[in-house]
């Protein structure tokens, strides 16, 4: 059976080079959340697609993002700022508006 890493291009030393095979603008749920996504100050759960390794998001207002559903630890993304987060071994990404709702444009880079 082939693995994701077996399909990766290699440099002259035989090291795998991680490249994006494609990107998707929806999460991995049965009824996917799609970009652009309207969020509120309540926590939203995004399911990371199985073959995703990176999450790119640009919110219209301040946005808290976390690996923890309780949002006790988080990173803040300022309005109209594009941020890139690794997500290769994650199951879920959680976010909510920092002080108001807004719209987030997002994509997952996949292998």
Structure description:
The protein has strands at residues 9-10, 16-17, 22-24, 37-39, 44-47, 52-59, 63-66, 75-77, 83-86, 92-97, 102-110. It is mainly β and 111 residues long. Strands 3, 4, 6, 9 and 11 form a 5-stranded antiparallel beta sheet that branches. The radius of gyration is 15 Å and the shape is elongated. The mean pLDDT is 89.
Major sheet characteristics: 5 strands, antiparallel
Assign the structural class, choosing from mainly alpha, mainly beta, alpha/beta, alpha+beta, or little secondary structure.
Answer: mainly beta
| CATH-level-2 architecture | Sandwich
Total strand segments: 11
Q: What is the arithmetic mean of pLDDT?
A: 89
Beta-strand residue fraction? 35-45%
Low-confidence stretches: none
End-to-end distance: 16 Å
The CATH topology is Jelly Rolls
Number of domains: 1
Q: Provide the helix percentage.
A: under 10%
What is the H/E order? EEEEEEEEEEE
Q: Briefly, what CATH class?
A: Mainly Beta
Radius of gyration: 15 Å
Can you count the helices? Answer: 0
């Amino acid at each position: 059976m082939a693995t994701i890493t077996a399909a990766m291009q290699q440099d002259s030393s035989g090291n795998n080079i991680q490249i994006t095979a494609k990107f998707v603008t929806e999460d991995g749920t049965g009824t996917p959340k799609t970009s652009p996504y309207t969020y509120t100050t309540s926590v939203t759960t995004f399911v990371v697609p199985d073959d995703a390794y990176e999450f790119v998001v640009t919110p219209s207002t301040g946005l808290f993002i976390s690996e923890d559903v309780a949002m006790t630890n988080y990173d803040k993304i300022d309005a109209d700022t594009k941020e890139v987060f690794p997500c290769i071994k994650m199951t879920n990404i959680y976010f909510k508006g920092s002080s108001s709702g807004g719209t987030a444009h997002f994509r997952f880079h996949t292998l």
